[in-house]
Design a protein that fits this description.
Blueprint: E1 10-17, E2 22-28, H1 33-42, E3 54-59, E4 62-70, E5 74-76, E6 83-85, E7 95-104, H2 109-126, H3 129-142, E8 144-146, E9 152-154, H4 160-164, H5 169-176, H6 180-189, E10 193-196, H7 200-207, E11 223-224, H8 231-239, E12 244-247, E13 261-264, E14 269-272, H9 284-295, H10 304-324, E15 327-328, E16 335-336, H11 339-343, H12 351-361
Parallel strand pairs: 10-12, 10-13, 11-12
Antiparallel strand pairs: 1-2, 1-7, 3-4, 4-7, 5-6, 8-9, 13-14, 15-16
Helix pairs in contact: 2-3
Length: about 375
């Protein structure tokens, strides 16, 4: 049975003990020191209060899926206050929480969130890392495994296309209203986008929907859903050139050198960096796209698929127009679109820059 999981995909366990020490206690097959550092920053184990939630992120070409679980040794009866001891494997008796981390080469939070959750249950109950490897090998060889009350995983039941559509594009339009056009423009022109939220769960829900605005590219690799402000992570982010990156540290808002637009979920506002304002002059085409986006909110029968298809059609019309504007270089014989040739056509203010950016983003200039 075909599966997207391979032996090169890593499974790692990080544990926080009763002394608040955090260690990587197991890994198969291996991860780099840089990746280890990044993962530790993105778990909540280093914080005083551990956050028990699933999160996903990206570093270089690797998707990181982190599932954090607490280890309770006692249970308090709410009625009489009595304490019941919980049977915990010997290897986990000094552990207060652990993060099970899957490193993969594919975006699919639903698939790997489910896999990480089941593996976490197996580890919490057994404390045996070899059981995790057994799960990995069963998926690799059979495409599935069943561990009874702890869960069943079937690789083929997780279609990545459903993962793409997990967050509604109409919810994003509803959230930002007229400023949604800035998000569409930034995605269309392949500009740098930073998304800020105080809550990681809200950040991950919203940011994963941004590639839907340019669904014809089907490129979720542009996402860096959760990034910390460590030098290592910011260096990796900048090296990608173009990105849609999420942060929960409010200091990112003052780092205009890192973004063309800032999407602030806390204030529901979208702002343009001072150095990029000339790239976001809105013209009649933008207004037409915005009318289309906002009109979708007034009709419940217009689905996310309708909105995505409509945006694809508008982009197709724009690209057809751009093809007609190509000019041939007499020396090289190559046809391309230059900023100079667009400006010579006396287009409305800002339109030449917008069209040139779209041409480059869509690969029309080779």
């Amino acid at each position: 049975m075909a599966t997207s999981i391979s032996l090169e995909d890593s499974i790692t366990i990080f544990e926080k003990d009763q002394n608040s020490d955090v260690l990587m206690t197991w890994c198969f097959p291996t991860i780099t020191e840089d990746l280890k550092s990044v993962i530790l920053n993105r778990t909540s184990l280093l914080q005083e209060k551990v956050s028990l939630q699933f999160n996903f992120s990206k570093f270089k070409n690797s998707w990181i899926y982190i599932y954090t679980t607490s280890v309770e040794t006692q249970q308090i009866n709410k009625e009489d206050g009595s304490i019941t001891q919980i049977n915990v494997p010997d290897s986990l008796k000094r552990v207060v929480a652990f993060s099970l981390v899957l490193v993969r080469n594919q975006f699919n939070p639903e698939k790997y969130g489910s896999l990480a959750q089941i593996m976490s249950s197996v580890y919490k109950q057994t404390g045996d890392c070899s059981k995790l490897l057994e799960c990995q090998l069963r998926v690799l060889n059979r495409g599935q495994f069943d561990v009874g009350s702890m869960g069943k995983f079937v690789d083929s039941s997780f279609d990545v296309r459903r993962s793409y559509l997990q967050t509604s594009i109409k919810d994003i339009i509803q959230l930002f209203g007229e400023e949604t056009i800035l998000i569409w423009s930034a995605m269309a022109m392949k500009k740098r986008i930073v998304v800020y939220s105080e809550k990681l769960s809200s950040l991950l829900k919203v940011i994963r929907a941004f590639p839907l605005f340019v669904f014809h590219r089907q490129n979720w690799n542009i996402l860096r859903p959760f990034v910390t402000i460590s030098d290592l992570e910011l260096k990796d982010l900048v090296s990608t050139g173009v990105y849609c990156a999420g942060f929960t540290d409010s200091s990112i808002k003052s780092r205009e050198d890192l973004y063309d637009i800032l999407v602030d979920l806390s204030s529901k506002e979208v702002s343009i960096s001072s150095q990029s304002k000339d790239q976001f002059i809105l013209g009649s085409f933008h207004k037409d796209v915005l009318r289309f986006l906002l009109s979708s909110l007034d009709d419940e029968e217009i689905t996310d698929q309708h909105v995505i298809k409509g945006l694809n059609m508008k982009m197709k019309e724009l690209l057809t127009k751009l093809e007609s504007l190509k000019e041939t270089n007499e020396e090289t014989g190559k046809s391309s679109i230059t900023l100079e040739s667009l400006e010579s056509r006396k287009l409305p203010n800002g339109m030449s820059t917008f069209l040139f950016n779209i041409a480059n983003a869509e690969g029309l200039n080779g």
